[in-house]
Amino acid sequence: GGARRSNDEAALGGRQTTGAKLSQSEEDAIRRQLISCWNVPAGAVGASDLKTTIRFRLDPSGALEGQPAVEKSSGDRVFDDSTLRAVRVCNQRGFQLPADKYDAWADVTVNFDPRDMF
C-alpha cells in the first residue's frame, strides 16, 4: 500500500510527486539559491555552451541526503565539478524551501546552463 512517487520532471527539473506543486516564484527562489552558490569555472573551455544536469535528494529539513550526482555530463569535468560544488555550498548555507511542499522538492534535478541561470 501507499502512494508511489511519480517520475515526471517539473519545470525546474525537480521530480514531482503527489501533493503540493511549487509555484513559479518558489521554483525561481530555488534557482536563485543555486545561482548564488555557483561559480562558473574560468578554466572551462566554452563554458557558456556547456550544460550539466545534476540530481540530488533533500530531507524534510531541506538538507542534502547523500551526495549530488551528475545525471548528464557537460563533457567538461571542471564544469561538472563546479555544479556539484554549488549544491554542496547551498547545502551548507541551508536550502530555504516551503516545508508544506516537501513532496514537490524532495527529489531535485537541475539543469545547470549559464545562459539560463544568469
Description:
- Helix content is 33%, strand content 19%.
- β1 and β2 (64-72) form a beta hairpin.
- The chain has four helices and three strands; from the N terminus they run αββααβα.
- Mean pLDDT is 80; it is low at 1-18.
- It is globular and about 40 Å long.
In short:
The protein is built from four helices and three strands. It is of the alpha+beta class.
Spatial order of strands in the largest sheet: 2-1-3
Give the overall form.
globular
Report, as a whole number of angstroms, the end-to-end distance.
Answer: 44 Å
User: Beta-strand percentage?
Assistant: 15-25%
Query: Helix count, per DSSP?
Result: 4
Oligomeric state of shown chains: single chain
How many β-strands, per DSSP? 3
Radius of gyration: 14 Å
Q: Overall pLDDT, averaged?
A: 80
Uncertain regions spanning at least 5 consecutive residues: 1-18
Q: What summary fits the major beta sheet?
A: 3 strands, antiparallel
Instruction: Please state the structural category.
Output: alpha+beta
In N-to-C order, the SSE pattern is HEEHHEH
Q: Share of helix among residues?
A: 25-40%
